[in-house]
Amino acid sequence: MGNFQSRPSPKVLPQEWRNGPWGNKARDLQIVKDYQPFKEDVQLRFMLYGPAGAGKSSFINAVDSVLRGKITNRAAADALFHGTFTKKYREYKIPKVPGTQYPFVFNDIMGLEKDASTGVCVEDIKLAMKGHVKNGYKFNPISVISEDNQHYNRDPSLSDKVHVLVCVIPGNTAGLKDDNNPSQLLTEDFETKLREVRLAASDMGIPEIAILTKIDEACPEVGEDIQNVYKSKYLKNKPWETHIDLPLHLARQLPPTFSKSSASRMKERSMGHKAYKIQKGGPPGPPLPFCLQ
Q: 65, 266 in Cβ contact below 8 A?
């Protein structure tokens, strides 16, 4: 009998189709710690939007946990997909050292729904991008925030405005158009909402990236070993499917190397996620890395 060598799963490629961010955790984390915006006293604001249950809040918790060095759960997230869980416009600043914070902010919003009369109102998203919505505003799916609302910001500063728009799409449903699938996302109403938000961001000069979440549910091989993320045949094709159906630019789609099943192992192994600064109308700029452990 010869030596037995295990064969890779037919769903996993022998080589990575994109170089994974493995082994550079300390370096990447230091880049984040040293990051400063081009203008002093201005916070770089990221706003996450996407379908309800996509994992927007969970992504914020993951970044918060890594940068603070402990497991956090400040952004409440629903473990089950039963419509949108986030109801208010929430701002999350991450403490750096006592008395200081990282110079970037994450904003979590109510999720987009498949039907026109449910989920966050598109006009509210547009106003939030312009800085007119204050932290704590409770979204109303059928009406837009009024100027006399206590959470309406009449005179937004540069820090109040959104600088990077992050579209969060669940990898286990993105690209599907199956009417018999209860998790079907890509209805005509949903695509219309998404298109309106993206066109508004483009008009405002706000760059956008897309993040595929729930990659372990989409590909069991990734759930078993996070380093299979860039070997997965399924995930290799997923950005192309999303580009065709939504569409989102291929160069701006990132499968994060953080999965639901890996949350309990965050203290035991190293992984990485890179969120890239994207120049409007051009190729990705220098990376702004986030390392998850």
A: yes
